[in-house]
Amino acid sequence: MFQSYLDKSTPYTPYRWGGTATLFLLFGLRIFFAQGWYIVAYSLGIYLLNLFLAFLSPKFDPALEQDEGMEDGNASGLPTKEDQEFRPFVRRLPEFKFWYSTTKAIAIGFFCSWFEIFNLPVFWPVLVVYWLILFGLTMRRQIQHMIKYRYVPFTTGKTRYRPAAN
Predict the structure, then answer these.
(1) pTM reported for the whole predicted model
(2) Which of 52, 73, 87, 158 is most buried by a 10 A CB count?
């Protein structure tokens, strides 16, 4: 029964992400007003960063394919234009699974923020700075990978042509 509701929600992407954003806002307000559970928020941030990187990454990594070809001895250095064919971008983590995992993680984090056992004493500015550095470094590496292998993980939809005006 739960799976049928998930299946029915698939085409409603903006509403699904709107609900997730609302849940994330509630979690943020809970952390802000309770003045605690920073380690839960940090853990959630690391997990969401991991999910986002999987969402941005291709399912078949061109760097790994190139390395495997070099080991086999059947790949020459750089590919030529003649033997390349168009391959659509296939994500390692599809959008629906990304949304579902994100929503589930935020709900678990929100649930954990109500139990004192998860309220570990930490100096939260260190966690924020460390997370920002980690985010910056991983996104820089991901963008360099995207530029090197020439792929764009975002599409704006199908190209629509207007009829020619006579």
Answers:
(1) 0.78
(2) 52
